[in-house]
Amino acid sequence: MSIRDRLEDAEFLRQAGRLTGALTMVLVAIAASSRLTYPKDTTPSKENPKEKMKDWEAFRTFLGNRLSELLFRDDEPDVWRTLEFSFKGERRDLSEFVYKYYRCSLVHEAKLPAGVDFRDGPALGKGEQPGFSLQFGDTMILDTGWLDVFREAVVHARCNAAEFGIEHFELRPLPDVDEDAIHAALIAKYNTTPGRIRIFKGATKALSPEAIAASSDEDLADNFQVHIRPRSGYITALRGEFADEAGRLLPPGVDFLRELSAKYQLVKVA
User: Fold this and answer.
1) Quick check: 41 and 52 in contact, CB under 8 A?
2) In angstroms, what CA-CA distances link 124 with 34, 130, 202?
3) Which of 139, 164, 189 is the last residue of a domain?
4) In degrees rounded to 5, what are phi and psi of residue 248?
């Protein structure tokens, strides 16, 4: 029995039309992955370091990190963009909500609570990303596209690298590079911000420093556009100065990306 088994069970149930059963299996896989990442007996709580991290905190931290990386390409450890929404007049964090109202309800009560649902297809078209959506307000609805998102969160988690045969890499500065000094110099030279540095670092990791160096300006602009297209907020942040309205790099953006990426390398990690 393994995390891979749970995902295979989920796919079998999904194909059979047993959607909440599929969701349950995926959430079990997330919970198991969270405890591989944050072991029960040795991980201190981030909220109360004098205590051990409880199941809900491990689940929320793991899923929050993974969703942030998948949806926003934020891959700094334990730092994520909170995916907040309003439910019955209160602000909620998605990863915490999924644990309490989906994972716990399905595992412990075998049903979803009133006002919470899981449906096939888009949930009334309120999602911002193609392929999955959610509806919130007085009723919280996830659609089945989230099965793919949650599965991706598990399969490509570093803790599951061996089980799924996936290699993971970190973007690290070259041995002779002072990262803080490089960032400061680029911010001054291009009159830009740390947020834009972060966007270009994400692109450097996705495209690889070697590929960036070997690409023509035209190919680099095209490849960057493919990388950034699903991230409308990033396009807005770069638009006008470094990229056009479609997210395709302008000459200053090409120069910026080349100069930044030349200071980094991808390093394989366990």
Assistant:
1) yes
2) 31, 13, 32
3) 164
4) -85, 130
Question: Using N-to-C axis directions, what is the helix angle for 217-228 and 251-261, rounded to 10°?
Answer: 90
3-class secondary-structure state, position 45: coil
How, if at all, do strands 140-143 and 90-93 pair? unpaired
* Domain encompassing residue 91: 3-164
More confident residue, 71 or 67: 67
- In this structure, the answer to whether residues 66 and 198 fall within a common structural domain is no
Our count of domains for the chain comes to 2
Instruction: Give Cα 203 distance to the centre of its chain.
Output: 14
Which DSSP helix (H) or strand (E) runs through 241? Answer: none
Range with the poorest average pLDDT among 5-9, 37-41, 77-81, 134-138:
77-81
Same domain, 223 and 190: yes
User: Closest Cα partner for 27 from 133, 147, 116?
Assistant: 147
pLDDT in tens, 91-140: 888 999 999 999 999 999 999 999 999 988 754 444 444 456 778 888 89
Of the residues 149, 164, 179, the one at which a domain ends: 164
pLDDT of residue 78: 52
Pair (44, 149) in one structural domain? yes
Whether residues 131 and 187 share a domain: the answer is no
